[in-house]
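Handoff note, outgoing to incoming analyst
You'll be picking up this chain. Sequence as last confirmed:
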Amino acid sequence: MNALERVMAEYRQWPGLRLTKRQAAKLWWLSPRECDAVFETLVGCGMLYVDSHGQYTLRSAARSERRVRERRIEDRQSLSHAR
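Most recent structure output, in case you need it:
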């Protein structure tokens, strides 16, 4: 199994996984160059999303978390209008 396949498998196995490139390189014993190539590929194909903190997560997990945050905001707004 190559580095790309290994990283893809780990993100599929752990959908809530959030790692920076540095953390990923340590976890999977990747060189910085190898890590850059893997993450560029996975972000480019739409599998991963990188957030404003430089953490990479599975795109479906990022969408789900975004929906939860949006729902919380909507709920708070509904409550404030109901008062």
